[in-house]
Design goal:
Largest sheet: 11 strands, mixed
CATH class of the largest domain: Alpha Beta
CATH superfamily of the largest domain: Periplasmic binding protein-like II
Order of helices and strands: HHHEEHEHEHEEEEHEHEHEEHHE
Number of domains: 3
Strand content: 25-35%
CATH topology of the largest domain: D-Maltodextrin-Binding Protein, domain 2
Distance between the termini: 43 Å
Number of strands: 13
Structural class: alpha/beta
């Protein structure tokens, strides 16, 4: 198959228009139509059909679109890998991040990235962990940081940071929150939680289900900052990562209770594709991410970096800071094909 024809098809399918795609590609519309037609002949399938508003992918076109994107991404990575054979990696790196991580991590990470790799560029794509994981599987991002992803034989996970979840409520809430709340006692509180699928929701429900606890959820809100604001106004309690309450934007009007028996710890992992060759830039960026002091980051402190960008191998250094409710950083690979989700 001709990569140029594949790129033409992707542009038309994404724009739902031959004329818009032709303008972006700087070629004539008849030439574009002819090249897509040749691709359809080679595949033996109609990939697009015209309607009154433009064009739409057929069922075969939708299936081929995902393959086409992956093929183009693989070709681009191959070019970047060969171009980065010099001393300092170059090319483009696409990193997928959950919004809360992106908010605090992107500015210091971009600064550190450009200091380490002046000839490279980085793109940060934001989405919920479930969505970012799908991007990684489809080849739309090179690396990702995810919360508590499900196992996959196609991905490798490396735990970077674990943080306890807490019960938070407005200080005007009556009765007052105790210092500690057991998982069994969570059934007594009206709760605000993210809607499924969501990493926090899945983790909380998994732990509660294992202990026979049925939660009383009165509202579902997906964005963490909205969860915090709603809890501040007092109608119910929220289950949140501790850093969402005590982190870069402290919430003095919220009372916090530790959740115990058992503690609920989320797991922020660095995810990479198992069967897709990583570029030198991806390996070096992974090393850069391993060097971040995520605990300091979540506390709102300046972000120190360790000088390990030249080492792209996995490490197994683990430090336990359970007194503060966080564990940072456990850079230990998890084989997802034989490791269950907690």
């Amino acid at each position: 198959m001709d990569l140029r024809q594949i790129e033409y098809f992707v542009r038309v399918a994404e724009n739902r228009s031959f004329s818009r795609a032709a303008g972006q590609l700087a070629i004539s519309q008849p030439s574009l139509s002819r090249q897509v037609g040749l691709l359809e002949q080679e595949l033996g399938q109609h990939l697009l059909y015209r309607n009154g508003r433009g064009v739409e992918p057929t069922e075969a076109g939708l299936r081929f679109l995902e393959h086409a994107r992956a093929l183009l991404a693989l070709a681009a990575r191959a070019k970047e890998d060969l171009r980065s054979m010099g001393d300092i990696p170059s090319g483009k790196l696409i990193l997928g991040l959950p919004p809360r991580i992106a908010l605090v991590l992107t500015p210091p990470l971009v600064r550190a990235f450009h200091l380490a790799f002046p000839d490279a560029s980085i793109t940060v794509a934001e989405g919920l962990s479930v969505q970012v994981r799908e991007w990684l599987l489809a080849g739309r991002v090179d690396l990702a940081m995810l919360y508590d992803p499900p196992p996959s034989p196609q991905l490798t996970y490396e735990s970077l940071f674990r943080e306890e979840l807490v019960l938070a409520a407005a200080r005007v809430h009556r009765p007052d929150l105790p210092a500690r709340v057991t998982v069994a006692q969570l059934r007594d509180y009206p709760l605000i939680l993210p809607s499924a699928p969501n990493a926090i929701r899945a983790l909380v429900e998994s732990v509660c289900r294992a202990h026979g606890v049925h939660l009383r959820v009165i509202a579902e809100v997906d964005a963490v900052h909205t969860l915090v604001e709603l809890a501040n106004q007092g109608p119910a309690c929220a289950i949140l990562p501790r850093s969402a309450v005590r982190g870069p934007e402290p919430q003095p009007d919220l009372a916090v209770a530790s959740i115990v028996a058992p503690r609920i710890l989320n797991d922020l992992v660095l995810a990479s594709p198992r069967h897709r060759p990583a570029t030198r830039l991806a390996g070096a960026t992974a090393a850069l991410l391993r060097g971040l002091d995520l605990e300091a980051l979540f506390r709102g402190q300046s972000l120190p970096l360790t000088d390990d960008t030249s080492d792209t191998s996995d490490t197994s250094d683990t430090s336990d800071t359970s007194n503060s409710g966080n564990t940072s950083r456990s850079a230990k690979s998890r084989n997802t094909s034989n490791t269950g989700q907690k």
